[in-house]
Structures are given as C-alpha cells and as structure tokens.
Inverse folding.
C-alpha cells in the first residue's frame, strides 16, 4: 500500500502539481484518501469511483476481507469477478482487459490506512456503478432500499450513478468523463 501512496505523492511533488483532483477506483480509494491526507495542501478533491471511501476517523480502516482468491502473495483477476461486477465488459473489450490485467499484491487489499485531521475538510465526490457491488452494499445498509436516501445519508459530497459494471472506464468512457468533469467543478 505504501508503495502506491508514495508513487502518487511523487507524481504530485516532482511535477509541482496544485489543485489536484485524485480519482480512486475500487480499492484505490484507499490510496487516493491517504495521498490527500498527506498532501492536503496540493489536493483539491478526492473522487471515489465505485470503490472504497474512508470515514473521517483516526483509526485503521480499509482492510478488505479475505473473500478474494489468493495465489501466493497476489490476488489474480478471477473470472468470477467478471461474472459478478463486469458482465458488461464483453467481446474485444474483455479480451483486451484480460490481456492487460495483472495480479494485485495481496497487501494492497489487506493493508489499512489511518488518516489525520488534515483529511477532514477534504472535498469528496462519488461515482457509483449500478451494476457493481459498491452500490449494492450501501443499499443493504438500509431497509428502504431508496438509492438517493441511502447515499445522501452516508456521503459527504455529491454523487452520480452510471449504469455500468465496475469498469465504466471501458464500458462508458464518455459518460464517466462527463460525470468526473461535472463533479470536479470544471
């Protein structure tokens, strides 16, 4: 986890970036939040794309459960994952994605992050994919099942819904770009 955090911090530092909008897709919401915490003076907003977003607390958080299949020290991209959250990645797009996908170090999933008070005022926005697991989890937390009600009660910033599986980067790139631009205030 620390390697990913340092990589992003170094991009910000060595490119003299200010007013950064960090996008954390899936588990990388942990990375984006930790970077925003450490470089709060450089980051304008964190946009969580169908993934983990932290609570504004001072305790370790974000360690994913042992539900993913592990092969040694990595988590491969299993076919079951496509069946549950990537059904809309089809044909040539799916072949391309599978050919580029690499196993993820298991520590990225297991390591937690702890945020400081510098993270508290950070602006956040959210994009949820209606065919992904993240939105389903939020809905499971409320008996009403009303998406707007559940999200407004649990989020501290604006959000958009995209009718897509977990990878709108592939399946809905224009809609995703428009949502990201809109949410970032640009």
């Amino acid at each position: 986890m620390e390697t990913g955090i340092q990589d992003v911090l170094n991009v910000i530092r060595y490119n003299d970036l200010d007013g950064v909008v960090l996008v954390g897709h899936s588990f990388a919401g942990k990375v984006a939040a930790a970077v925003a915490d450490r470089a709060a003076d450089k980051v304008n907003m964190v946009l969580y794309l169908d993934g983990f977003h932290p609570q504004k607390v001072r305790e370790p958080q974000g360690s994913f459960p042992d539900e993913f299949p592990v092969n040694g020290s990595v988590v491969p991209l299993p076919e079951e994952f496509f069946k549950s959250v990537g059904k809309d990645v089809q044909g040539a797009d799916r072949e391309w994605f599978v050919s580029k996908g690499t196993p993820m170090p298991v520590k990225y999933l297991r390591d937690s992050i702890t945020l400081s008070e510098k993270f508290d005022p950070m602006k956040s926005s959210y994009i949820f994919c209606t065919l992904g697991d993240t939105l389903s989890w939020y809905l499971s937390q409320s008996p009403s099942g009303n998406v707007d009600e559940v999200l407004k009660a649990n989020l501290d910033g604006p959000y958009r819904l995209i009718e897509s599986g977990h990878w709108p980067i592939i399946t809905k790139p224009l809609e995703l770009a428009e949502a990201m631009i809109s949410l970032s205030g640009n």
The chain has one domain: 2-63+109-184. Residues 2-63+109-184 form a domain with the Rossmann fold fold (CATH 3.40.50.1820).
